[in-house]
Structure formats: C-alpha cells, structure tokens
Design a protein that fits this description.
The complex is a heterodimer of chains A (about 325) and B (about 350). By secondary structure, chain A is an alpha/beta fold. Chain A contains 12 helices and 13 strands. In chain A, a hairpin with a 2-residue loop joins strand 10 (about 225-230) and strand 11 (about 235-240). Chain B has a domain at about 10-250: P-loop containing nucleotide triphosphate hydrolases (Rossmann fold), CATH 3.40.50.300. In chain B, helix 4 (about 135-145) packs across helix 5. Classes of the chains: A alpha/beta (about 325), B alpha/beta (about 350). Chains A and B meet through helix 7, helix 8, helix 9, helix 10 and helix 11 of A and helix 5, helix 6, helix 7 and helix 9 of B.
Chain lengths: ~325, ~350
C-alpha cells in the first residue's frame, strides 16, 4: 500500500504568559492509501493541533513548530510556501470540522461554496461546477439536491450541514481527508448516518482518512488503525480490532471502560480517576502515572519510550498490560 | 442496583401538557404558524426515582423539562408537583414551591457567569433567597464544593480556571445549594469528553442517594439512560412514543423508534464488519408535524393507516406504555384495504394484541 502521509517527530510549542505549553511532543504518524486512521484522546491532549499541523494550519508565531519529516503523497511539504500549501489544501487534502455551522459561510448559499471548489481547483465554469455540485450533494444523500444547493446554511439541519461539508471535502477527490470530531455535535441517529456516509465515501473514493475524536465507540465503527494520545504524546498505536481486544496501555483501558454500554447492568460507571494534567505543569516521568493504578517508582521518574510489540503495535508504558488486562507483561 | 420504585408516591405528574411556540416572521404582528414543541404529554414521576427522557434534538425533551419546573408555561394541561398545580399558584406560593425544583444545564461553558468567582456562582441562589450572612454562605459553599469533589481552595477562582468536567461540578453544586427535592438534569454530560462522563454520572448518583433527590435525566444516549434511570419516556416530535419502567423497555423495546435508537448506540466491541442500522432522514419540522403517527415518514415498518390515524398510548404490560399501531393494532375506524396483508408482513412480536 502506498503511503499517503509520513510524519516524524512533530513538536508544537505555544509560549504563553503562564508558561510554555508543549501541545505536541514527538508525534509520528503514518497513513496509507484507503486507510482510516483514528487519533483518540481527551480534550487538550494535542490531537487537533497534530491534525492541523499536518495541513500546516497552525500559525507560527504564536506557535513554534518543529518537524523532522512531513511527507504527503511522496512529496516533502515541510518547507512549502503558503501559496504552495493552498494548492494542496482542499484539492489533495480535505478537512471536515466539528461544528458545521461555523465552518460554512453564513451569507453564501451552500451550493456556491461547493462550486468554489470546482472553479478554484479544477478550473470549471460556473455552470459546469453547479452540475458537479448537485451530483456531489446527491451522492451524500441530501434530498432535493438542486433545491438545497440554493439554501443558506442556517436553513439546513445539523446533519444536512455536515453532509454539505462532506460533499465539499470529497469534491476534488482528495488523497487525504482529516475529520476533526465530525459527529460530536450531532444526535446519535444522525451520527450513525454521517459515520456510515463517511465510510462509504472514503471507500468509494479511495481516500485516506484521519479521524480525530475523543469517543472510542466512534472509532470502533469506522477506523482501521488507532493512535491513542495523552498529554501531547502517543501512548498506544494498534490496529483497531487488536486494540479493543487486548489494550496494552492503562489509559486505553480507562478510555474503553468509560464508554457507557447497553450491556452494562451495574449502576456504577467506570471512571478514570483525576483529570488531565495542566499543559504547563505536566508531571515528571510518565505523564499518566498520577492517574494510573499500576504506577511504580520507575513510572514517576522516567518517561517510558514507545516500544514496538508484535510488529504492528506500539505502546508507551513501563508495564504494559498483558492480554488478560490485569497482570503485568 | 435499580431501586424498587413501584410503591413510591408520585412527586410530579403532568396531565395533557402541550407547549406551543408562535412563529413570527416577515411583517410584525403576523403569526406564521405554531411550533408544537410538546403535545399532549401525560406522565408521572415517582419520588426518589430517576426518570429518563430520550429523543433527538428538536423532539421537545428540553421544553418538557422546562415545563416541569415552571420555566416555560404550558399552553394547556396541568403540572402537579407535590399535590399542587404549579400554574394555579399565586406568585408567592410559586416562588416557595419552585425552590424545591432545580436544574443542571447542558453546557457548563455558557451556564456559568465568567465574571463571578466560584463563591459568587454557588451562593447566588442563597443570596437571592434572602441570605445575607457571608460566613453562613461560605460554610455552606465549602461543604458543597467538597461534596462535588472540589476544595475550599477553589473558592475565589473563576470558571475559566476549570476544565469542562469541573465546571459541570460547579453547576451541580449551585443547583443543590437550596436542598431541592426535584432536579432536572438537561443533558448534563453531552458537552463533556467521554472519559469524564462516568465521573459526573457517578457524582449525580451519589448525591441522589445522600439527598434523596428525584431526577429527571434528559439525554440522547440510551446507554447512559439504561444505567441511570428507573423509568423513562422516549420522545419524538413532541409526543411520547414509549414509556414506563426502563428495565422493561430495554428488555423488550416495542416501538420502531426505540429500536432504531438502540441500534445506533456505538460500542467498543468490534464485530466482523459492523453495519450501522441507519434511520433515514431528519426529524421533520415541528411547525407542520406529519398527520397520524408522527414517526411514519421515517418508520421502517410504517403501514397505510399510520399516515392518518394517530396511535393511542396503551399499556402493553405492567408499567410499559407504547403508542404504535404495530403493537396496539388500529382502533375501530376504517382500515386500509390491504390491511391484512400489511399485518401479515409485520415481524413477530411477543406482546402483539392480535
């Protein structure tokens, strides 16, 4: 499989009045063709900053970004100028944001906003572009696409707006699509619609997908590979099925058991104790040790390296949990 | 751990409550139409239980919650709290009664005043009630902060210093400071990270046991409702589709809408190739709700008669009410010509009335 994205040693730092925020610390990311990679973590763990750095959307200043390798589709885009990046964004690399209402222009019809994609990136005329737009809207399952193309964003429901964004993102058949919490603002029934639409579109267009989310249950529905992030570092990487059957990092176990399940019978919900450390005051050693029930003296002193286990899995833990999930490996 | 709530007395009941909002538009003073946010809802909430209200956004669940505690005046029907009709009380009586009913809001970012410190936020209800002794209020606020898992050190900090989960704890502390007996939790966790959900839900359960509270828990996540609630109501477009004991509903969901909601609850179990059962379309506009059963346009099992005849809510087993023609059968009115054929096609159900 061809590699679409290769990211090595990404570091993003925000100097603030309260101290230095190390938002992303040495993150490596690999995305292959037709693959859906999920980046999971709590708010403030640096997952959105990582995904936006891939598109080079983080402004510097204020941020300080360092990266060893940023290869997109075989090209090194690390030193591309803003103009060169604009050629790639939208055309070869798309993005869907969490809040569909704020990412659409409120004073422009939805159709016109999608037309722009075809006019700008494919050089079509206005009329041709509109034909393509209507087809694209039909593809994402919007009823009466020709009429809806003339609607303004506020006239559509949340699910419909997310579909408009989906149509826009897939308009130029991008090689990589980044979806940042695409379903968080939606109802469960609409979430299911959008997720299955996203998966079908991704498979149909052969696009690679980077899904950023805090909800592991969304991951289980569409992802192939999962990266779990905590306080700016990748703590575990694994294929989705293996991650859910045998999670190695205590944080992954915590995240998984925090998802409420229909099969639960107890009234007590499993929780991860404590909160995410403040970004300017990260603990010594392993960042997770104050919340980890298996923490030892070693964990308090030394940050564990990202170790490779069973060829396709990586985990950053001194004492990764074994298959049983209780005894130490 | 579900408590036996069968023999408890009702704390709040609603009789045929409807809430309409006028839609104005275009020229001033011209009414365009009416949104029926809640239409003809009757329910009973028993003392000490947790009552879940489930549905998609726009189905009227928040309006129903607001109508319960007097934040929205129903267009018709009555709300009876502790034996008193809430909307027939005098202004003074209403104020005293209302003190026992409080609310926890969905969004902890917009429901806390950013210019108030923690002490001001939490003590405000006491202050409004007429308490003016700083020491008494401070003592009580610290007590509550400790109850919700914060500390006295946080007393003079501002909401911006706290994470989403901590802010929601502040919101909870504020809502219980006047020792209410009835608390409406309007999607208390949906603005928070999944990892924080469990902390807040466990806190709500602990507080309920300590203070003997009755909760109304509004949510769109059935997995949470299943583990939180003793009774529940599934709402769609202002109407209750299925209601009763949550244990019975989850064991035997009868309404197609409940079944659809259940099918889209995601899990962390990865099956071979997961197929999401997807409900087509969006929730229709409540300005012109569909005639007949309100769900027929999206119902995978809709029959001819569903379009015209609104279903009645019928008790299908003890403490389990369903409003669906599939389950209840059509009342004695003219039936569509191919009715028998339609009935024959319907899936087998244990509690069919035929």
């Amino acid at each position: 499989m061809k590699q679409v994205l290769k990211l090595r040693n990404l570091k993003v730092i925000f100097p603030t009045n309260y101290g230095i925020i190390r938002a992303v610390e040495s993150v490596d990311l690999d995305i292959h063709e037709r693959e859906c990679v999920a980046l999971v973590g709590e708010s403030g763990c640096g997952k959105s900053v990582t995904s936006q750095s891939v598109m080079r959307l983080i402004d510097s200043p204020p941020a300080i970004t360092r990266v060893d390798t940023l290869e997109f589709d075989g090209r090194d885009i690390k030193d591309y100028t803003p103009k060169q990046m604009q050629e790639i964004r939208g055309k070869e690399m798309g993005m869907i944001f969490q809040d569909a209402l704020t990412s659409l222009n409120p004073v422009m019809t939805c159709g016109k906003q999608i037309d722009e994609m075809y006019i700008r990136h494919q050089g079509l005329s206005k009329e041709e572009a509109r034909e393509h737009t209507v087809k694209a809207l039909e593809l994402v399952g919007l009823p009466e696409p020709r009429k809806r193309a003339n609607s303004f964003p506020h006239e559509l429901s949340g699910g419909m707006r997310q579909r408009v964004l989906l149509a826009m993102a897939f308009a130029c058949l991008p090689k990589l699509l980044i979806a940042d919490e695409p379903t968080t603002a939606l109802d469960v029934t609409i979430q299911a619609q959008v997720l299955s639409m996203l998966r079908n579109m991704q498979r149909g267009c052969g696009t690679a997908l980077l899904l950023v989310t805090h909800d592991l249950s969304v991951v289980s529905a569409i992802a192939d590979t999962v990266y779990v992030m905590y306080a700016g570092k990748i703590v575990e990487k694994a294929p989705v099925r293996e991650l859910f059957s045998t999670p190695h990092h205590p944080y992954t176990v915590g995240l998984m058991s925090a998802v409420p399940r229909l099969s639960d019978t107890e009234r007590v919900f499993t929780q991860i104790p404590g909160t995410v450390p403040h970004p300017t005051q990260k603990p010594s050693g392993c960042y997770f040790h104050p919340r980890c029930q298996y923490a030892t003296a070693e964990c308090k002193k030394e940050m564990p390296p990202l170790k490779t286990i069973d060829s396709n899995r990586e985990v950053r833990c001194h004492h990764p949990l074994s298959i049983r999930g209780v005894s130490h490996a | 751990m579900h408590k036996d709530v069968k023999n408890r007395t009702p704390i709040l009941s609603m009789r045929n409550v409807s809430v309409n909002f006028p839609v104005k538009g275009g020229l001033p003073f011209i009414k365009k139409g009416v949104i029926q946010a809640v239409s003809d809802v009757s329910l009973t909430i028993k003392r000490g239980e947790t009552f879940g209200i489930v549905g998609e956004s726009g189905c009227g669940k928040t309006t129903l919650g607001n109508a319960m505690i007097g934040m929205v005046r129903p267009t018709s029907g009555e709300v009876i709290f502790n034996g008193k009709n809430l909307y027939a009380l005098s202004r003074e009586e209403f104020k005293t009664t209302r003190r026992a009913m409080q609310m926890i809001f969905q969004d902890p970012f917009s429901s806390l005043n950013p210019r108030f410190n923690v002490y001001q936020i939490i003590s405000e209800p006491m202050f409004i009630r007429g308490e003016d002794d700083d020491e008494t209020m401070k003592e009580r606020v610290v007590e509550l902060l400790e109850l919700v898992g914060l500390s006295a050190d946080d007393l003079y900090r501002y909401p911006s210093d706290f994470s989403g989960g901590q802010r929601q704890r502040l919101g909870i502390a504020r809502s219980i400071i006047l020792n209410p007996s009835f608390l409406v939790c309007d999607e208390p966790v949906s603005a928070l990270d999944v990892s924080i959900h469990a902390q807040i839900l466990n806190l709500l359960n602990t507080i309920q046991q300590q203070m003997k509270l009755t909760y109304v828990f509004i949510s769109h996540n059935l997995a949470v409702v299943k583990n939180m609630c003793d009774s529940m109501a599934v709402m769609y477009l202002g109407k209750i589709m299925e209601s009763g004991s949550s244990e019975r509903i989850f064991k035997n969901p009868l309404h197609p809408y409940t079944q659809a909601l259940l099918s889209v609850v995601l899990d962390t179990v990865v099956e071979k190739e997961r197929e999401l059962v997807v409900l087509k379309g969006d929730i229709p506009s409540p300005i012109n709700p569909p005639s007949g059963c309100r769900f027929w346009q999206r119902c995978p099992q809709a029959m001819q008669g569903c379009k015209t005849i609104p279903p009645e809510s019928i008790e299908i087993e003890e403490d389990h009410f369903v409003a669906c023609h599939l389950v209840n059968g059509f009342p004695d009115v003219e039936l569509p010509s191919n009715y028998d054929q339609l009935v024959a096609e319907k899936p087998t159900r244990t509690h069919s009335m035929h």
